[in-house]
């Protein structure tokens, strides 16, 4: 081997592809049979009667060791070793795969059931936890002395063919909610397999300047190496029919359809439309494995020193190991496991034919298991425009292998599609660590647009009145209105007699004969006056005075006293009135205001006590001022002060109808306004008994 035992293995896969194929395309509602590869539920209630894939191809590569300008790579004289940007670590990764889809087709077997049959060839290469520094050293023609721990690298390369059959059905359809599910069963035919796993491997190189062919490699550790056949004796790939297996894919799709309520339209006849506002997809793919009947697997003790000449003379990796290390044969067939993964996406119909998709592809297997293939974890956001004969999309994705964001572009033109998930970012980056490309040719047969001439939502095939709009519940015919009262016959309780809609098309009656129709009569079964909305006036206390005229509706009293009982007044003695006014003289206000000073509250509370002893007595509260200032302002101030006293008494429980208030300004002085003492006496509040 002229370069390296591992470097050659890794770079050989650089022409394969990453495990997720057709990035940006398979979420399209017009992806057809390609969609079944990622979610088998996608084929039911699709835009196709049938979709035939003639041939399609998807290929990509990603790693975290080498970054390049892809346009420079194809130029003459490009030196990968010196011009590529290198990012070596103790645990570098490479993830590769190729996906070829052969003749395949999908078709509907019933309105809510679909089938797909596909053929497919796949190749996956995974290399993880490889020391990139060793790769760099081994790739050089002129090496320097080095001593590196490779650790425990794990590598697998697997190629196989698939024949699959998918079935999908509508599981639930109610109102705005739509759920479909699907399953794929796959027969797997193994083609070729390599796998290698090291344990505490190290490589030390000692250069012999005088005799380079005698330079030495000292390796330590152990390794397991296996393949689908003994390639050291036969380098040609022999496909063995006994090297086979089985796989399963499962998928669910939920759609929220706020504009297409299944209870009001024949949704199953509108397959030509994309009906959802939001779509949620979830799938578990590649459950299964295959067994290579003639597979070989050996354990190798790597504790040995070999020369450069030993290394260079090996024709292939298998022969190199057998010639230089002692193998221990591991009996039994070689089992290779599929790259089981979860795919989840949310698709949002932004407006009309514009969509945006958020997708995640995640491996659910341990990448450290021997001979276990896996996909690279990836999250992508893809805006797109889609129509029957044309789609355009721009996927933006991030993968955990190369730790870079990629931007691509793709389009579909009916029978042909082509795209890449990385072409735009590769065009401007000098450090691209991933590339992908896909294309395909197919024959789509789309669902025909159902006819609805009158636009009433009932398709012509089910419409008894195809030229006149009508509701679905009347088989597409308008409801009649025999009496022309605006209430359709289906809702009219009086088909031949006009009446308002709120009375189910019947004229209103006057059941109690009080001249008020029942629709405005609050007591339709009992006659009553119009002014009481058709109800008789009540007499709650049964005293002969109707409540409308009764000032005491809950207590009986004679008509001449307005229905209130006659209460004999408790006579108020003159000294009591005098006492009230003595209290009132001590009521003080803020200067120029009607605000009662706090020190007056005690006097007011004493007045309340007296008034409560005479519950039927009525009083007038009078406000007075001196003659100082403007007469109009004095009048207003006296009114406000009298009202303030009234409000205070009411707040303490005195009934408001027992009190009145009035202001007289300076009109009723009780002393001369020419002296200070007189003016003080004139500024007062009086509380007088109403006779």
TrEMBL record:
Classification via InterPro entries: Bact_OuterMem_StrucFunc, DUF5723, OMP_bac, OmpA-like, OmpA-like_sf, Thrombospondin_3-like_rpt, TSP_type-3_rpt
Residues in the signal sequence: 1-19
Domain OmpA-like: 576-691
Family matches, as Pfam families: DUF5723 (PF18990), OmpA (PF00691), TSP_3 (PF02412)
A GO BP entry: cell adhesion
GO CC annotation, single: cell outer membrane
GO MF annotation terms: calcium ion binding
UniProt keyword NAD present: no
Protein keywords: Cell outer membrane, Membrane, Signal
Cellular location(s): Cell outer membrane
Domain of life of the native organism: Bacteria
Protein name stated in the entry: OmpA family protein
Provenance organism: Flavobacterium gawalongense
